[in-house]
Amino acid sequence: MISVKNLSKSFGHFSAVEDLNFDVKPGDIVGFLGPNGAGKSTTMKMLTGFLQPTHGSIEIFDMSIAQHTKDIQERIGYLPEGAPAYGDMTTYQFLKFIAEVRGFRGKDKEQRIRNVIEKIELQDVVNRPIENLSKGFKRRVGLAQALIHDPDILILDEPTDGLDPNQKHQVRELITQLAQDKIVIISTHILEEVTAVCNRVMIIAKGKLLFDDTPLRLQQRSRYYQAVTIHLSYLADISGLAELEGVAEMEVEQKTGHVTLFPEPGQHILHEVTAHVQRAKLPVDTLFIEQGRLDQVFRDLTTEVA
Ligand SMILES: Nc1ncnc2c1ncn2[C@@H]1O[C@H](COP(=O)(O)OP(=O)(O)OP(=O)(O)O)[C@@H](O)[C@H]1O
């Protein structure tokens, strides 16, 4: 359990994080979202004990991080922003070094190194210097070092940054698997990652917490949530769609020709729309219910505070 109270961090007169309050429990996979400079990395550094807060407190497993930094760090796996250091070491040498720093010796150490190499699929780069690896592999080596001691808490700063789509998918699967009995906090700029991986979203901007709830609740904030979008294969009279019961508004996107019908609050309009399409014999080639556009909600929330 992580308990954060009135957490603030200033650099000189500049306030990077302001009065954050939240709890995180095992099983939570928190997506920490925010524009550049929002304070995500600063918060993560405070959660991992690498940066002292200016105000407020962090308790992890009922211990204050200020007083029990080392005990808590033993239970945290941290992937910092960017790539791991020590580029002249090979992947194996680096993981061995980290395992030793974590206090493992002998067979246990070797077994742990083997396990993470397998889990993160690093077999092909085991003996290559880290500085020669692609950005994606560097990121994966970083992830491996965060997992070597099987921590209770994983704090991952942009874990899929620089990965190709297949690797992104693989890392997301891995995070989902790992999260069953752990606390996972990931920071990301990728909105789709939040719905793919997280069961909780926290959005910060200018150091302030603006949203803390499930991805579904975030989607529900979108004006597109449960709207019905259609596309016609050729021009036809669509005026009847706007008159349907439960439809509050109709919008036509000029560039793509997509027609979106927005429901009155709490209304489900799919049935009405499909019935009308059949009655009026509209030449529809696409019809779907919108899940909510996260990019629009993100923009609305974060530009409000800006
Ligand atoms: N050591 C420091 N000294 C002064 N200012 C700092 C320091 N570290 C961070 N900041 C500032 O604090 C603010 C928050 O930075 P932080 O790195 O936490 O943002 P972020 O949300 O992680 O951004 P990004 O998504 O770009 O990584 C930024 O304006 C940054 O310039």
From TrEMBL:
Molecular functions per Gene Ontology: ATP binding; ATP hydrolysis activity
SUPFAM superfamilies: P-loop containing nucleoside triphosphate hydrolases (SSF52540)
Entry keywords, A to Z: ATP-binding, Nucleotide-binding, Transport
Pfam family of the protein (one): ABC_tran
InterPro entries, alphabetized: AAA+_ATPase (IPR003593), ABC_transporter-like_ATP-bd (IPR003439), P-loop_NTPase (IPR027417)
Occurrences of domain ABC transporter (ranges): 2-231
Family: Belongs to the ABC transporter superfamily.
Name of the featured protein: Bacitracin transport ATP-binding protein BcrA
Organism: Paraglaciecola mesophila KMM 241
